[in-house]
Each structure stands twice: as C-alpha cells, then as structure tokens.
Design goal:
Blueprint (H helix, E strand, L loop, with lengths): L12 E2 L3 E3 L6 H9 L41 H10 L7 H8 L70 E7 L6 H4 L3 E2 L12 E4 L15 E4 L5 E2 L3 E3 L4
Parallel strand pairs: 1-4, 3-7
Antiparallel strand pairs: 2-8, 3-5, 5-6
C-alpha cells in the first residue's frame, strides 16, 4: 500500500493547546499581505500559465477584491507556510489538524460527526474539467462558510466541534508535516508529543487532509490523507500557539 492508502494506526499523542483559523486562508487575507508589501505577488496565482485549470485559481491580483471570500488556492506549500508565518502562525501539524477535525478525541469520521456527507453538508464533487461525474450541483470554488449547519440539511454542515469551518471540503489543506508512511520513525517512537514528521529531505511533499470542491463526497473523510501539490483544489489554514495563561 502507498502511504495515503495504508491503515491508520492508533498512536497515543499529546497535543499542546493551540489556536486554529476558523476559515481557510482567503484571497482577501492574501491581498492584505501583498498590499502591505509583506508577501510578493509573484508567489501567488497559477504556476503554469495557459493551463485550462487556471480558471479555477482564485487569485485575481492585489487590486481585485472579487474573490476575497474564497479560499486561496494554486499556491505551493512553501508559500502557504510563509503566509501563515507572516500572520503570526504556521501551518497546522497533521496531529493538530486531526485533533480538531475528528472532535478532540471523539474519533469522528467527519468534522460534524459520523453522518455520511451530502451535497448540502460539504463543498465537494462540484463540476470541473477534471471531474467528469460530479455528484453535486455547481462548478468551481465556493466562498468560505458556504456549508454551515442548516435546517434544510438536517442541522448538519461542515463545521467542527469547536467551530472550524470547511475542514471536510472546499480545498484540501496543506499541513506542516512532510508526507511519510505511518511506519516512519517519526510516528512510531512511543508516546508522541506535538509530533511533526519532517524527513529533512529536499523537495519533500507536504501531507494534506480534507476533501476538495473537485473531489468526491467519499473523499471528505477526515482520516484520509494525501500529499500536497499546487493546484486549484489545494489551500490551507493557519495554526497559532495558545498564549493564554
């Protein structure tokens, strides 16, 4: 089995208190960083001009606020990490992300619980050039918080126990860890304390979790992991140290 298909082992881990963005990092936040001079515009937007999938990239330039409420996508893991650092945080570790998405020890299948995802529950399986059989209506990236719990969806929506939104769908989220098998030494050495699996190799892919607007409904399972590459279905959110006494 490849590392993204292997069974998920149960490892005891201690996760220190941390803060997590409610929403995925938006185009509006990125525009503020660029306009302040903190972030170079050249790091944002499509990396392969002319690619037909570029139409799904949300960055339109520093002066265009049209997509301010949409998650920033089509960025590298390095740019995502830099944007978080400029915002006072970092990318979440895989352990932090799973701790939040799975209900802080409850082992939830999805951020909202164990009910199977529906088109009203999560932004997933929407039409795109690389999804020939979408399960849900609409096409392209949606604004953040488009699938909050609602009466029309049986009170369910893509919100975690603590209020983090869009962890199951919208964009697959890039994380701090390098992508490695759960059999790697960083995962199997006793009780883990704030684990971050980093292989120290150059060009390593970052781990990613969460489904995306272009993926399948079945791909929104919180435990399902992958590796991040730049593209219209990848984005991120930031984590911060808990400074409370």
């Amino acid at each position: 089995e490849t590392p993204d298909q292997e069974p998920i082992p149960l490892h005891p881990a201690v996760v220190s208190p941390f803060l997590l963005d409610r929403d995925e990092f938006t185009v509006g936040r990125a525009r503020q960083l660029v306009l302040s001079g903190a972030l170079a515009e050249s790091l944002l937007g499509p990396s392969t001009p002319g690619d037909p999938l570029d139409q799904y990239c949300t960055w339109l330039g520093p002066q265009d606020p049209s997509n301010d409420q949409e998650p920033l996508n089509c960025i590298s893991s390095e740019t995502a990490l830099l944007a978080c650092q400029l915002s006072g945080g970092t990318l979440p570790s895989e352990a932090q992300w799973l701790h939040e998405a799975r209900g802080r020890g409850e082992g939830r299948h999805y951020p909202w619980g164990n009910d199977e995802p529906l088109c009203c529950t999560v932004s997933a399986s929407r039409g795109a050039a690389f999804n020939a059989s979408p399960e849900c209506a609409g096409s392209g990236v949606e604004p953040v918080e488009s699938h909050l719990p609602s009466a029309s969806c049986g009170g369910l929506g893509d919100r975690s126990k603590d209020g983090a939104v869009d962890m199951a769908g919208s964009v697959t989220e890039l994380l701090l860890d390098d992508f490695a098998s759960y059999a790697a030494p960083c995962w199997v050495e006793g009780i883990l304390h704030d684990p971050v699996c980093q292989t120290q190799g150059t060009g390593a892919f970052h781990t990613s979790h969460g489904g995306s607007w272009s993926g399948t409904l079945s791909g929104t399972l919180s435990a399902q992991r992958g590796y991040g590459v730049t593209g219209p279905d990848f984005g991120f959110r930031c984590a911060y140290p808990d400074a409370s006494p």
